[in-house]
Structure formats: C-alpha cells, structure tokens
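forwarding from the other thread:

> can someone predict this with pyridoxal-5'-phosphate?

sure thing
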Amino acid sequence: MKNIPFNKPYLTGNEMNYIKDAVDLGKISGNGFYTKKCQDLFQEKYGFKKCLLTTSCTDALEMAAILLNIEPGDEVIMPSYTFVSAANAFVLRGAKIIFCDSREDHPGMDESKIEELITPKTKAIVPVHYAGVACNMDLIMGLANKYKLFVVEDAAHAIDSYYTGKDGIKKALGSIGHIGAFSFHETKNIISGEGGMIAINDEQFFDRSEIIWEKGTNRSAFFRGEIDKYNWVDIGSSFLPSEIIAAFLWAQLENLEKIQKKRITIWKSYKDRLKHLEENPNVKLPVIPAYATNNAHMFYVVCNSEEQRSSIIEKLKKANVLAVFHYLSLHKSPFYQEKYKGPALENSDKYSRCLLRLPFFFELGENTIDLITNTIDETIKAN
Ligand SMILES: *Cc1c(COP(=O)(O)O)cnc(C)c1O
C-alpha cells in the first residue's frame, strides 16, 4: 500500500521557469525583480503597509525584535503552545518570555488571561494565529493601546486569512498588529522551501526595517539613488532571500486562489466525515469563531487523552498514514523549564498531549481522507 505522508510540497508547474528567468536576468542576489513582484502583490492584496521578504518567518520575528528595540529585562507575552521561533527571537535580545495559556476551545492564546500578565516591563504581545484562525484582535489591540505595547502577529500559518472586528471591517491577519511575520516553509500553504516575510504596518519602522534587512546598511536607499554612498548605520543581518527563492514564491503566488480553494475543499471533507464526532465528548474538532476566517492551513482533532492519541497514530501508521502531534509547551521545554516561574498552563499542556494533526496537502485525495477518517472512527469506537 502507498505511504501517505503528513505533508507533500505542491508545485504549480512554473517554479523552474521563473527560477530560470531570474538566472537569465543576471541578478540572483536579493531585492530584485521577483522579490519586488512578490512584495507588491502582498501589499496590494492584503493591505500590509510595507512588506519585505525574508529567508524565514524565524528571521522576520528576529527583525521584529530588533525593530522594537527589545533589551535585556523587557518582557514579551506569547502563548506557550507555539513554535520556538517566536520565543527565540526575543530571547536572543535578552527578553524574558511571559507565557500565556491557550484557550479552552482553541490552541491560540487565551486573550482573557493576557492583562493579568502585563507589568511595567512588558514591551510586546505576540499572538499566534494558530491554524490560520485569528486571535481576538480587538481585545489584543485594546490592551496594546491601554498599556502602550507593541503587537507582533506570528502569522506563520495565516496567509490569506482574515479577522473582522467590532467595527465590521475585515482585515488580513498580519495587517492588524504593528508588525506581522509570515512563513513560506514547505509545510505552509504557500511555499518556497524555506522563506518568510515581515509585514510592517506602523510607518515609524519603514526606514529602519530596510536597514536591518540589509546587514545594518542603508544600501536599499543607495540603490534607489537617494544617497550617494552606503554605510553601516545600525545593527542588522542578512535577512533577505535570494531572487531564486522569490522566483519560486512568485509561481506559488500566481496560483494562490487555486491552492486555497483546494485546501478548503480538503478541510471541509475532513470536517464532513468527522462531523458526527461533535456529539462525542471524547474528541474535539477545530472551532472557527465568528470573527475569523478559515484558510485551511491544517486539520486537527483534540483527543481526550495522550493514550487515545497514541492509539490513533498507531492505527493510522498500520494503514501507512503519517499523522503527527504538534507543539510541546515551551514553558516545559528543556531550555525553559528551569527559568519558568509562572502558573500551570493547563490548556497548553492539554494540546501538547492531545492534539493530533492529520495529513494535509494539495494532492490529498478523497479516498485517502475516507481511509483516515474511517480509521479514526474505528479507533475511537474500540476505546
Ligand atoms: C512555521 C512556523 C514558524 C517558523 O517559520 P520558518 O519560516 O520555518 O522560520 C514560526 N511560527 C509558527 C507559528 C510556525 O508555525
């Protein structure tokens, strides 16, 4: 029987053509023709004020920490149930991470618990739009305004997903906080192997973002002819990807609608076939709040115990299907557990033990979804 992977990168067919074109154009380092095409499209389509492609979302988050002038002793609030990059970016600048629990009904951070974590040292809140489903941004931006904090949206999962606030205006995720960070890693919806983007929505960061992006130099302004020599003017690093990566990404962006449509079909197939489980107290399916859209980044089920999750993973493995769990609470990680002095984060630990991600990729067929959902059903019935 054929092996069903957890993820399979989807190629639109034009990637190699655009890479060849980039090579033929004779400039394959960063900030060229394809980089600008991608950045312009993101700005126009999603209303980000300024976009810079980066070599990863990790790099975009590191740029954000530099832009916010994070210093030793500053505190940054983020969920514990997330990827390590958001924490690392701020730890690298000496910040203390204040971990927030997840919501009861969703792995994203519990917005109602943020305010009690704010102290005079708090500098930023980093919401993660888990599975591309928006956090309650009215609440988060309200706290940011009240306490004069920055908001960096970790939108790694969240391309082409939206939030509708109390004002009724629908806004792209990553365009609401001061800064948004995206990933084009091969496990995300739109890919370039490794790759990412920083979206800058606060104009005070425009000039400095270009400088940090280009190793702390004012080279971007120099190439636009605004200054006659370029200099080392700030800290920075090599955050920009080569044109080869941008050319690949452009082929994906041209097919964004097609990719999203297919992913949403797959998501709905999973949901339809597992719908009856909503009556079952032993398993929970993803919840999409009324203010959020679903960009079909992933499909998961939340099991009632680690044992139940293991037995489903085992049964699927016997059917040659690879299903995986996701994050492990960062506050309990080998690197952070000794430093962590806060309260127990029960929901974060529950998702660490019980959340199961099902295979999700463009070419996933209906028959395979049947096989996967039937296997889950049988395992739950047998338990
Ligand atoms: C994938 C991911 C990242 C890191 O993205 P890279 O592009 O691989 O650096 C950061 N945050 C979250 C929530 C992610 O899922």
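The two ends are 26 Å apart (CA to CA). thats all i got for now
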